[in-house]
Specification:
- By secondary structure, this protein is mainly α.
- It folds into 2 domains: 59 residues; 212 residues, ABC transporter involved in vitamin B12 uptake, BtuC, CATH 1.10.3470.
- It contains 12 helices and 2 strands; from the N terminus they run H-H-H-H-E-E-H-H-H-H-H-H-H-H.
- The protein has a two-stranded antiparallel sheet.
- Strand 1 and strand 2 form a beta hairpin.
- Helix 3 packs across helix 12.
- The protein is flat and about 70 Å long.
- The relative contact order is 0.14.
Length: 298
């Protein structure tokens, strides 16, 4: 005779397991952030990092024998880099989850519909023509990458619309096609650059880096990330329905095309902002959503 399990007990155990996983993840994030801020050409002990941060928050005094340079290195170089890295990773993960749900494809990632290709082309154009302007805390390369990513996404979405609808297959094909075209343009500009420095600079950007992260970049991209996260969070339950089938979602009263357009815009906006300051960082947007599902559940 089988043993019956109380549904409420199962629900309680599931919630307890999720909260435990969340606590472990938060502890891991805190540990990685402390180690990331401590490690570098000038080593700062992780506990010193924690004490420095606590002293900054509480305006407390620091030990007299600590080097004064630690505070400058930590708050002007390393913590901005850690914070920006966390924001970029979080953005790519959220955008990846959105695209995987919308396209019903576990291999979808934030770069599937041309965001990375557009950003790469825009950044390479700025490097090729040596643009030196800045606005809103972002330099010319970041601004060009941001604009390129948004324009590429808009072009792909426009090309994929057929009879007032945007079929997923057409959207992916348009993204692959335009992405290949923009990648060719990026390669052409790199090979025809005036000097080797421009080519190396473009290649370095394409590889992705947070080495020059600063608080201005964090402040510049944060509004776009918050807007994107808010829109995605608001439509979270709708995303669950869209994972099943668009026709079923339509039958349930969901304006599929409108919601799809809003979610693609929100995810692409956040991804464009993140990529504009970090360069193209792959793998995160593809794998992290699956890891979260394994731990937290679908």
């Amino acid at each position: 005779m089988g043993v019956r399990t109380d549904p409420q007990a199962r629900k309680t155990r599931s919630l307890s397991g999720r909260l435990t996983a969340l606590a472990v993840a938060a502890l891991a994030l805190f540990t990685v952030a402390a180690v990331g801020a401590a490690w570098g050409s000038v080593y700062i002990p992780p506990m010193a990092v924690v004490r420095l941060c606590w002293a900054r928050l509480t305006r407390g005094a620091l030990p007299a024998d600590w080097p004064r340079s630690w505070e400058t290195i930590l708050f002007q170089i390393r913590i901005p880099r850690v914070v920006l890295g966390g924001l970029v990773g979080m953005t790519l993960a959220v955008a990846g989850a959105v695209y995987q749900a919308l396209f019903r494809n576990p291999l979808a990632d934030p770069y599937l519909i041309g965001v990375s290709s557009g950003a790469s082309f825009g950044a390479t154009v700025a490097i090729y023509f040596v643009w030196r302007f800045a606005w809103g805390g972002l330099n010319a390369i970041s601004l060009a990458a941001f604009a390129g990513a948004l324009l590429a996404t808009a072009a792909i979405y426009g090309l994929a619309r057929v009879g007032g609808r945007t079929p997923v297959t057409t959207l992916i094909l348009a993204g692959v096609a335009l992405g290949a075209l923009l990648s060719s343009g990026t390669t052409f500009l790199m090979f025809t650059a005036r000097d080797a420095f421009s080519t190396i600079h473009a290649l370095g950007w394409l590889m992705g880096s947070l080495a020059l992260a600063n608080w201005d970049e964090v402040r510049a991209i944060l509004p776009y990330l918050l807007l994107g996260f808010s829109v995605v969070g608001w439509h979270a339950h709708t995303l669950n329905v869209l994972q099943l089938d668009e026709d079923q979602a339509q039958a349930l009263g969901i304006a599929v095309e409108r919601v799809k357009g809003i979610l693609i815009l929100a995810a692409s906006l956040a991804t464009a902002a993140a990529v504009s300051v970090s360069g193209v960082i792959g793998f995160v947007g593809l794998v992290v959503p699956h890891i979260v599902r394994l731990i937290w559940g679908p």
